[in-house]
Amino acid sequence: MVLTLSSCVNQFNQVYKSDNADFKYESAKEYYVRGKYTKASLLLQQMVTVLKGTDNGQECLFMLAMATYKGKDYETAAQYFRKYYQSYPRGTYAEMASFYVGESLFQSSPESRLDQTPTVTAISAYQEYLDLYPDAVMKELVHKRLFELQDKLVQKELLSAKLYYDMGEYFGNCTSGGNNYEACIVTAQNAIKDYPYSPKREDFACLIMKSKYELARSSVEEKKLERFQDAEDECYGFINEYPDSEFKKLALRYIETCKKYTKSNQ
To answer: Tens of pLDDT along 114-124?
Structure first.
């Protein structure tokens, strides 16, 4: 095993140091076919500049992008695919390069609790692909990916809204104005506006209702009446929109509390 490994390393080093461009390029393709993507990438990186402008130029760049992608270096792969499309907008692999820009960014999209900038960038790349190729080969998969990415953005907003609600008055003072309940309301309302057909719409609506109730309950006396009235209206609106919701009983309890206060203070 040691001898075999040593032989393989020596063989690769000979190829890597070779001045024979044809030999090096054919070796790179052989490594790629055998799934040795790191070795293929190292050789192809050397050949991209050498082969630029030749018949093998665009194949080399696209293969480098694919080797990098299959080697799971997705951010670098996206750069190579974008470089290919910019260099060869009408090239043989132009459509697939455009698709793989989005696919690479999709693969590097982080979990919902983290910063979602890569997710937004992936959505933009996929949309650009669909704009460029309305009858795209990968159209069905791209639509599926877009829904997945949008769900991730929605989940990120839901986690943010829940965090504001859970913090409550911790970082704010209800008696002096803005607090986390208000931040929760704004975040949830914006999410409903931005993603009106999301399956999480009810969750956002429930957070708005709960936050308005808690905001009223913890307000200074001169603001309580108006805020309890607003909370009551929100509860009725929630029940009308989600009559079978598991949170209906909670909404009815809130309404009862709101009515007690408003009736005794009018």
So the answer is: 999 999 999 99
